[in-house]
Amino acid sequence: MDPDPAPRPQDVARAAADPGDPLAALRAVASLRKLADTLEFTQVENALSAGHGWPEIAAALGVTRQAVHKKYVRRITPELRERNHR
Questions:
Q1: Which domain of life does the protein's organism represent (predicted)?
Q2: Over the range 51-83, which residues count as b (16 or more CB within 10 Å of their CB) and which as e?
Q3: Would you say 27 and 60 are in contact if contact means Cβ atoms under 8 Å apart?
Q4: For 30-34, what is the mean pLDDT?
Q5: How many Å apart are CA 37 and CA 59, to the nearest integer?
Q6: What's residue 2's pLDDT?
Q7: With contact defined as beta carbons under 8 Å apart, do 45 and 77 qualify?
Q8: What stretches of 1-86 show up as alpha helix (H) in DSSP?
Q9: What pLDDT, on the 0 to 100 scale, is given for residue 84?
Q10: CA 45, CA 68: separation in Å to the nearest integer?
Q11: What are phi and psi of 42, to 5 degrees?
């Protein structure tokens, strides 16, 4: 028998919104937050790779350039860091 597949994001979101079991809902919220953080980091790197600058990325995320730069500059690959130094 195959191991249980990973839950689909929409199922996790449904669990997060279910008032029937608040602790299970909080675990689902934490899982969604981790997924969102991973996706955001991936897309920041993709945007930088595509030639977008920090101001554009910040605008897309609804934050300041300084905020997004501070959050990600040390996490991105050195190649992207050098190419997008502003």
A1: Bacteria
A2: eeebeebbeeeeeeeeebbeebeeebeeebeee
A3: no
A4: 95
A5: 17
A6: 58
A7: yes
A8: 9-17, 22-49, 54-61, 65-72, 78-83
A9: 66
A10: 12
A11: -60, -45
pTM over 0.85: no
Encoded amino acid at 14, one letter: R
**Residue linked to tokens 């050195």:** 78
**Cβ neighbours of residue 57 closer than 8 Å, sequence gap 6 or more:** 44, 47, 48, 65, 68
For residue 12 the two structure tokens come to 């996790």
20-to-7, 49, 62 alpha-carbon distances in Å: 19, 43, 33
Residue 37 one-letter amino acid: D
DSSP 19: T
